[in-house]
Design a protein that fits this description.
Blueprint lengths: L3 E5 L2 E8 L3 E7 L4 H10 L2 E7 L5 E7 L3 H11 L2
Antiparallel strand pairs: 1-2, 1-4, 2-3, 4-5
């Protein structure tokens, strides 16, 4: 399975599917977590580029409005 690319501003992070969990989802490597969070906190949208099982390249754009507040609330609740 090919990695999925996530772009936020000038930051690109590869996300990797895990067939043992669900091939429809992809996660960053643990070493990339802080870079991904930092990028998402500083951006207004994320572009996700992946390849479907049929080989079709798919691009989706998601708003990051509210990400910082949600991240901070999650951090607060997990302490």
């Amino acid at each position: 399975m090919a990695p999925v690319e996530m772009r936020v501003k000038d930051t690109t992070i590869n996300l990797y599917p895990n067939a043992e969990i669900n091939v429809e989802y992809a996660w960053p490597r643990p070493d990339d977590d802080i870079n991904l969070i930092t990028a998402m906190r500083g951006g207004s949208e994320a572009t996700i580029i992946g390849t479907s099982a049929r080989g079709t390249i798919t691009t989706d754009v998601f708003s990051l409005i509210g990400f910082t507040a949600a991240y901070e609330k999650a951090q607060e609740m997990c302490q």
